[in-house]
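step 4 of 6: structure.
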Amino acid sequence: MPHTIETQQLTKTYGSLKAVDSLDISVESGEIFGLLGPNGAGKTTTVSMLCTILKPTSGSATVNGFDIVREANKVRKSIGIVFQEPSVDDRLTGRENLYMHANLYGVPASEQKERINRILKLVELEDRANDLLRTYSGGMRRRLEIGRGLIHYPKVLFLDEPTVGLDPQTRDHIWKYIKELKEAHDITVVLTTHYMDEADRLSDRIAIMDHGKIVVLDSPSKLKETLEGDVITVTANNIQTLSRLVNKLLGLNQNQIVDGALEITVRNGKAVMPRIMELATQNNIYVESLLLRQPNLEDVFLHYTGKSIRQDSGKELHGMAAIQRRAIK
Amino acid sequence: MSEIRGVYTLWLREIKRFLRDRTRIISMFIQPLLWLVIFGAGFGLRFEIPGLSYQKVIFPGIVAQTLLFTAMFMGISVIWDKEFGFMKEILVSPISRFSIFIGKMLGDSTSAFIQGIIVFFVGIALGISIDPLSFLYALPIMVLITFGLVSIGLTIASFMGSLESFGAIQTFINLPLFFLSGALFPLRGPGISLPSWLTTAAAWNPLTYGVDALRNVVLGSAWTPLQVQPLWVDIGIIALFDVIMMAVGTWAFSRMK
């Protein structure tokens, strides 16, 4: 089966910074492909190149079999894009925004009305279709934008951080739509996100990106399997010492301190937990809590990049403050 | 075909936005009224041209001024589109940059044109005598004037990243073009001698010929002794300016990211 998207050594540099570094990915037809990584990892730059907004510095890529540089116009006709930032006209109604899009993308006039009605139904905005967009909530605008990206029947839909800044309920709603739309229209979806749960819930395959490179690429369940087993999270009054002891005496070298808590990845969590308690008690370390859970993508990211995905957004300080608070207690 | 539909939809959007802006529609009536009534009355005291009142002389100038300010304002509105992200939706569409430029240009020109017509009605309401036929002749001239002016606005906006420099446009483009166009005083004629730097600057100002063309049409033979150029020369210069500015605008849009 031919790949919907193929990149060869796709690279974009800004001065000495390699925003995207020799990227080789192939996206299969009909899948939801997640690009996951922290802010600044190169996700949006990658998508911008695939959408022909940016020209690559070197390397090449095809989307739907069209070269992104030489056949940019054909690429544009065959894709739908939902940008990270809003891109609707809030002085027009929802319906007017959709008509405009249909006209820009050359949807035959005879089909426009029906397609637009169907999309409005799909994103549940029928009753608000004739209201100005400025009266819409953030979630409603987002839904309209996602629906809009489908009016010209694209073969690939690019979603750049589709739920950023939305409340949890709305995010849930939008995830549901993305899945439904994908089924209904039989399209390929490329999704960028820095939310672990989003990538986990939606994607068939996930590429974890960091510093412009793919760190690892697999299905969410396979990625989590590579972590073999469980994650134990410990909070204690002397976390550094505990981390050292766990490593040295129990041989658990897959442990890291994240946001002031010790995270240990092990094969058999239930059996290891009592050993950790024992060790702590022997060394006069007071354990506040002990938690056993299945690994999530956050752990996968941590495992492959050696840092928390939220680290770039100033949460590090939060972690330090948390440690100090615990120490006082 | 799809390009034409793209142009049409961009045009339609500008018109809808224009007509939905209530406060601007009201101010469209007020501004020319202030100029014609207060400025016209105050400065008219010392102004004598046989067969012409000062108010009537500046009337075509105020029409041109309205076209200038509206066209520039509408053109600059591209910055809003950039800032609020809507420009992205247009720029990534399969429509060519030339069509995007033309669609915007036609939409903004139509808005400026409507505003110019309103000034005519304000003038008639104030009792300025305007021959219906000369009003009809003025319409295509107004269209010609707006094309070039909107193109200036669009070109500037395509280079500007934010609204911060918006005030500078007023100071460095709108007002100099307006004051140096002869909109408020005749540039030549019997008994009129202006400093040569002023007449030179006016000669290089495209709006001068727009104002002059409108006066040739609206004021008729009474204006002939004071005209800058005969009507057909005025029209030729404006048309040339339009072609140049549209080419520049298309180029500016094609490099916009």
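step 5 of 6: annotate
 - Residues 2-254 of chain B form one domain.
 - The interface with chain A takes residues 1-2, 5-6, 8-9, 12-13, 16-17, 20, 84-86, 88-95, 257 of chain B (CB under 8 Å).
step 6 of 6: archive
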